[in-house]
Specification:
Blueprint (H helix, E strand, L loop, with lengths): L6 E6 L5 H13 L3 E6 L12 E8 L1 H11 L6 E5 L29
Parallel strand pairs: 1-2, 1-3, 3-4
């Protein structure tokens, strides 16, 4: 890989709406960090762990377990975001979000 930016490995369930991954990519870009997205079932050897600072798992319980499997050999820390519960009410906007999505500048990321 030729990208010298720090990297986040995103392990995502196929059920995760693309706007969640887009939000992660947009936020990471603001901090000069790149995001590479991998599907559940990825071979851990396909991820460039030497350039990966941490991983983010977005999905349900199975995706969380998959992130454990994938990150354990490299001892890379990960954050799991459970998007399967009450998906209708999940807001992944910034901390300034008051859940009034009509007036939120980040509403394109909300359900």
């Amino acid at each position: 890989m030729t990208d010298s930016k720090p990297q986040i490995a995103c392990i995502a369930s196929p059920d995760v709406p693309g706007k969640y991954i887009e939000r992660l990519e947009d936020t990471a870009a603001q901090h000069d960090v790149s995001v590479s997205t991998y599907s559940v079932g990825v071979d851990p050897d396909e991820i460039p762990w030497d350039q990966t600072r941490f991983a983010v798992a977005i999905g349900g319980d199975g995706t969380f377990l998959e992130a454990v499997r994938v990150t354990t050999p490299s001892q890379t820390p990960f954050l799991a975001v459970n998007s399967s519960y009450e998906r209708q009410n999940l807001c992944i906007a910034s901390s300034r979000c008051d859940l009034s999505c009509q007036s939120c500048p980040d509403s394109k990321y909300c359900n």
